[in-house]
TrEMBL record:
Domain named Transposase Helix-turn-helix: residues: 46-90
Transmembrane segments: none
Sequence ranges assigned to domain DDE Tnp4 in this UniProt record: 120-279
Region (Disordered): 209-251
Lyase listed as a keyword: no
Cofactor field: a divalent metal cation
UniProt-recorded name of the protein: Transposase
GO molecular function, a single term: metal ion binding
Keywords per UniProt: Metal-binding
Superkingdom of the source species: Bacteria
InterPro entries assigned to the protein according to its UniProt record, in alphabetical order: HARBI1_dom, Transposase_HTH_dom
Pfam families linked: DDE_Tnp_4, HTH_Tnp_4
Amino acid sequence: MQLGKPVVELSGPWLARQKSRLRERRGHERLWAEGGGPDHRPVFTDRVIAALVILRFQLPHGVLAAFYGVDRSTVTRAVHEIHPLLAARGFAVPGEGGLRLRTLADVFAYAQARGVELRIDGTEVQVRRPRADKPGRRAFVSGKRKQNTKKASVISDDKGRALWTGAVRPCRMHDQTALKTDGSWDLFTQYPEVKTQVDAGYRGLAKDFPGQVTAPPKKPGKDAPAEETDAWEEARKAQPSAQIPVEHANAEHKQWRPLQRYIGRREYYDETHLAIAGLVSDRTAMR
């Protein structure tokens, strides 16, 4: 990904947010002419670079503060200005110049229009453990990983290019429940030609939309005939192959340090995950 692209893309929204914030703080329009007043330091391009470096390597803010010769709080403020803008960019579409997918409805509309078969899966990342006296602490405890994690749902095409990441939630919420809460059930009804491959965790989705969603069959009972058991075994072995593209999409996201283990505050995890996923999509869309 070229640096100039996000700098140009984010400069307008960033400047508009700064003007809005200052207007709200003053309570009136600016009195000085444009260009008056103190300059932003570091400049906008350096703020974007600092935010991207922290996204990629999860460096302490104090390291970049020392590099730019500013206070640590200045770098922290710059990061919290840039990361939400990166998270709101959406996902680049393969072969479609400036088109970006920002919502789940965009993904379904694109898949139906282009005949793309989707892949759906969930991913989880270890986060900070909540304080012992904090309500809802158990919601972050993963029964699978025995750690405190947050989950996200990922949708990719059959070539492993992520088209959407969202439904970020504490790990106790099931993958299928998160998608249902985000409105995927209504979208499958609205876009009846969309096809998707899922794993066993989304078997309820396949049950409700048998012509659109393909999931591995349920394991037959002990008294089932040999033919049924053999058919299930064959389908069970074929299913991971169908899910490989979305697993590759997850793996590309986790090359970025924050999605290997997130050490920041949990309330900033969502925008961090979405910002990384959007940046990765810029590269994968060129495949």
